[in-house]
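Hi, here's the filled form for the chain we discussed.

Project: internal
Contact: R.S.
Residues: 688
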Amino acid sequence: MESVGQFESIVNDSGLVRLERLSTEEITGTEDGPGIIERYLTLSADGSVMLQDMQLNPDGMRIGDKRLCLHTFSDLDDLPGRVRTDGRYERLSTDRSDCRLSYASPVGIMLPCDHIYNQWIFIDDSSENLARFEKTAKNMQSLSRYSRSNQINKEWLDEYLNVAHTNGLQSVRCHCNVIAWAENGDELRRVKNDVGSALALMECTPRHNTIDLPVLYWAGIPGNEADFPSEESFYTFTEQALCFFTAETCYRNSLSPFGLRMVDRLTGKPVFLDISDLPMKKGVVTNRNKFILGPSGSGKSFFTNHMVRQYWEQGTHILLVDTGNSYKGLCDLIRQKTNGDDGVYFTYQENDPISFNPFFTEDYRYDIEKRDSIKTLILTLWKREDEPPRRSEEVALSNAVSLYIEKIKKNRKIKPNFNSFYDFVRKDYRKVLADKNVREKDFDVDGFLNVLEPYYKNGEYGYLLNSDKKLDLLNKRFIVFELDVVKDNPILFPVVTIIIMETFINKMRRLQGIRKMILIEEAWKAIAREGMANYIRYLFKTVRKFFGEAVVVTQEVDDIISSPVVKETIINNSDCKILLDQRKYQNKFDQIQNLLGLTDKERSQILSINLANAANRLYKEVWIGLGGTQSAVYATEVSVEEYLCYTTEETEKLELTRLTEKLDGNIELAIRQLAENKRQENKQSFNP
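And the returned structure, exactly as it came back:
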C-alpha cells in the first residue's frame, strides 16, 4: 500500500492527471445504486440492468442476452515492430493542422460498438527478468547449431537486453484485450469486423480469441488482477506498454447546478457543461466574459440562441444587442410563455418607431447611476461629439436633473418623461437660474431648449423619449434591442446605445446575487465607432464584480485584427473563448491564433470542427476554451422545435410568421405544428 500511495502522489503532483481511490460503496455498491463490480458483471455502464445468468463456455460466452467476443494483444507476432504514443487522425486533420490521437484510440472511444478495453501492466522485478533473459540467450546460443530459429531468438533477446541496459529501461509484462458484445448473431459478426478493423488501424494482426474469453473476463473484474493467466502476457518496456493506453475519454457532465446542455461530438449523447461558475471556483478563469467568433453560416446564431435560452431558464437576466433579428423568435416565445411579463423586443419600424422613457422607474428610485445616465443622455442630445460642454453647463444640467427628480418624487401626478422635463426647464428651472443670477453665457437656457425641441411632444423625434408604456426594464429578464435600422442614424443610435448601457448597468448595480448577461452581436462595431467604446471597456472590466458576464459575438476576422477595442479590451478580459467553423479563414488563422493566444493543440481542435460530422445527425460543432488551459469541441444539436425557433433562414422565418398570424399569435403552437409537419416529411422521404 505504501508503494501505491507513493505512485498516487507522483501522478497527482504532475498536475496532468489525478488518481482517486474508490470507496467501498463505489466498488460494491449500495441499496441506492450499483458499484463498479456490479456494472462490470452486467455489462451496464449505469448498472440499470439486473444481474443475469452467465454462460461461460469458451466457444460462446453470454451474459443474459449479450453475446461476447474477445480480441487479444498477447503475442508479439501480432504486434507491429514499432509503437508510438500518438498519431495523426486524418479525418479531423487538414493540411494546416494535425489532430493527434493516442495510438490505442481506435479501440477506445473511436470504436463504434459496446465494448471494454482492458490494459494490464505487470511490474515484476526487472533485474530478475533480465537475468533470466541472459540465461535463456545463452541456452539459445548453445542450441543454435540445431535450429536457425534458436539463433534468431538469441539475436532478439540480445537486442532486448542491449536496449534495456543501454537506456536503463524497466522490463515489464503487458496484456491488452477488447471485449465486445451484441444481442444477436448478425450484430455480433458486425462487431467482430469493427474490432478487427480497429486493430488493423493500429497495425496489429487481429486475433479473435475464443478459448480464453471466460478466463480473461474473470480476471478483468476490478480488483481480481491476481487471477490473470501469466502466459497471456508479453514482455516489453514500460514506455512501450504505456503506448497501449488510451488517452481519450467521453465527455462527463459537470457537477455544477448551473450550465448548458451540449452534445458529445462523437457519440451524440447530451453533456451538461458549466462554462461560467465552476471554472471560476476552480481558478481556471478569472471572469465569466465570453468572446465568440464564427463566420456566417457556421451555426453562430444557433449556439447563442441555445445558450441564452438555457441561461434564461435558469434565472439569468439577459440583455441582447442584435443587428439581424436573430433572437426575435426566441423573444416572442418567451413573451407568450410568460403571458407578456417578459420578453421585451425593441426595434424600429415606420408604423411603430422605437421609443423609451429613461425617466421612468416603478419605485421612483433614482440612484447615482440612474441620474448620471439621464445627464449623459441629455448631454448627448444637446452637444455634438466635437463640442465639449463647459463646466458651468455641466453644473447647470446636473442641477436641472436633480431638481426635476425632486419635483416628480413630491408630485407623483406628474408623468416622468422627457416632455415634463422639458416643461420643467422652460418654466421652473428658468426661474431658478434667474434667482441665482446665472448669466446666459454660462448657461443659455433658450439655446438648450431650442436644441432639444425636436425631442419634445410633436417634434421630429417626439416619440423617442416619451414612451407611455410603464416599462421598468430592471425586472425584465429577457430584453432584445434590434439596431439594424438605427445603427447608422446619427440621432437615434447614440440615444439607443445609452439606454442599453444604462439598462444593463442598472441591473448590475441593483440586482445583487442575480446572474446578469449582456450579449452584443455585430452591433459592437457601431457602438465602438460612435464613441461608446468606454462603455464596452467599463463593462468587460467590472461586470465580473456584479455576478455578470459580457459576451461579444463577431464573424469577421478583420474586425478582430483592426479594432483596438476588441484587441485590448474584449479579448484580454474574456477568459472563455468560443469559436465555430473557421475553415473559411484557414489562410488567416495564424493571425487569429496569435491574437487569441491559442496553442497548437487548440488550433488543431478548432480546425477539426465539422470535418467528420455524422451523416445521420444535423448539428454544428463548436470549440470552447477556458483560460487557455481547458478546451474541447462540442456539438450544438437541437430539436426540430428549437431549430424553427432559432432559424435565421428567411423562408423558414416567414413560414413561421404566417402560421403564427393564422393561429392568433400563438407562436408556440405554430412551432409545434411546423415541427410535426417536418417530421412527417422526413418519414415520407425515408419511406417513399
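Let me know if anything looks off before we file it.
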